[in-house]
Description:
There is one protein chain. By secondary structure, this protein is an alpha/beta fold. The protein has 2 domains: about 5-80 and about 155-225 and about 315-330, 3-Layer(aba) Sandwich (Rossmann fold); about 230-300, Alpha-Beta Plaits (2-Layer Sandwich). It is about 35% helix and about 25% strand. The protein is built from 11 helices and 13 strands. A 6-stranded mixed sheet has the order 6-7-8-3-9-10, sandwiched between helices. Helix 3 (about 95-105) crosses helix 4 (about 110-125) and helix 5 packs parallel to helix 6. The longest helix is centred in the middle third of the chain and has 16 residues, at about 170-185. The radius of gyration is 25 Å and the shape is elongated.
Amino acid sequence: MSEHAIRAEGLCKQFGEVQAVRGLDLRAGWGAVLAVLGPNGAGKTTTVRMLTTLLRPDAGTAEVAGYDVVREPRQVRAHIGLTGQDVALDENLTGRENLVMLGRLSRLSRVAAARRAGELLEAFDLAGAADRRAKTYSGGMRRRLDLASSLIASPPVLFLDEPTTGLDPRSRRGVWDLVKGLAQDGICLLLTTQYLEEADRLADRIAVIDHGTVIADGTADELKQQVGVRRLELRLAEPADFPRAAEVLRDAGLLAEVPKPPDASEPPVIGVSADRPRALPEAVRVLEDAEVLVVDATVLRPSLDDVFLTLTGNPADQRPDMDGPDRDSREGTR
């Protein structure tokens, strides 16, 4: 068995004048979850399609489960599962029939396909709806069935391309629980997402990509530290103290921005720059010396948009998708 379940070096892919992926490097170990995080058009889906043999790289090398994606595509396909952004099911078949059909297409015997379908229906909490047509399933049930179908042949490596897009919070948490369970079973998962919270909950490591290349790599906490604590907010006891608080914080070099005095309907909150390691105690001390009473302090940690804005210069949802043509072809591998 190879050291890495997924290894890519210098991957490149161009569509016309659009360089979708440029010199991308990735590593993922066995039993690990690697989240590929990035805005629309960053190259996430193109990367997945190359790693799953649906697209041929223009340059670079990649191995999945120890097999080269260009020279050994059949072996790669035999060791992977893929769940795309859109659910790929036959809605006129029941949940059980969908899984058995995919099992047969994966060259399982009738008995083995039926047995594996039953195991997955139980594991994904779909046994009670196994004999209902897929078109009657809720969005969360359809996503669980789609994920189950990717596991029909028990692949050691699983690719999930934005698996929770469009799901309600309850269904999203259900998919998260399933992903955690799969990793505990030793499956390597590569997860693409726009949601920092999702990556934070699931990933052992996160690779942030933008314009087709990795611009940051680390754990969720490490990425947040790169962004830094954006600011502190101090709530004052008296609105009348607001001008004095702004003045002394400005003189101490601690004011986050030129504040707008609160109106009568807003709490008197003032922002403090978090550039210094001891910004909070320093701010409280200078306000105390100025006889300004602070009744509450809030640390505002980086949000998804903070990470994207700092690392990529763009909010998560404000870039056109430039991942190349034929996006639906990503559904061609299970």
